[in-house]
Amino acid sequence: MRLSDTGCQVCLRGRSAQEITRGYARARAEKAWRRRRPFVILASLAALGVGGYAYQRYQAAILNFGRQSMASFGRFYDANSDPAAIAPHYGAAADTASQSQPKPSASPADDSFAPQNSPAATFPPAPAPTPAPAPVAARVAPAGPPPVIGPRLDAPEPTLPNVAPGQWVLHGRVFDLKTLKILADARIAVKRGDYSFAFATSGPDGWYAITLPRNENDNDGYQLAAQQTGYAAPAQYEGDIPYAKLSASERTQLIQAAQEGDTHPSPLTGSADYVRRDVFLSPRR
Predict the structure, then answer these.
(1) What residues have CB less than 8 Å from 100, skipping those under 6 apart?
(2) Which of 130, 226, 239, 278 suits a disulfide with 172, CB 3.0-4.6 Å?
(3) What is the pLDDT of residues 6-20, one digit of tens each?
């Protein structure tokens, strides 16, 4: 095999397996074409020979047919392109159309609209304008308590499952970290390392609850992961951070960190029978 088949002649770079495969395919195609080339040449010569023999044998008939075809086309072209042969037809048709249309008949003068010596016409008096309706005072809604902004962390908790020996319950609500709105149908997963073994889905009011086994010897604890359409996977659920009371700029910084995957949540342990952790999800970019 030549050097140009396995390496570039300019930079001496070795060719890849895909380039070598394409080269072999091109070589096989060229070889097949060289095998077929004599037969293609013979078939072309045979077709030329048959055509020449047919022309010599029927030369008079072919020439006669060609002359008749040209003469017929010439007569057709002359008959349809002579203005003298086209204009009379259009003129006769126009005259016939104009003659077929009825002419308007003269009618006697109508003097019904002629001015007459009559007294001036009298008109009824104009109606008095209708008075405008009196303005109606706008109804003012009764003053009430101001709307609640942010999540109601003091909302009553739902009925939680009973705790069996050796177990504890993790519960809370799921919120949007940007708008502090409640998120329903968010899938919460409890992980230990890379293994997820407990799942829950937030209800219409955002509540979730998961029963977990208690392991006193496990110092690593558990991690929470959430999945919701339009939100980043990292969840923020630190118990000592008042997410709902943070300013908008502080929450924006937390959202950017979650979008970049720069979150380091604390592990969850069963320090009590019921542990509450509200989960805050960050919208995607």
Answers:
(1) none
(2) 278
(3) 556 666 666 677 777
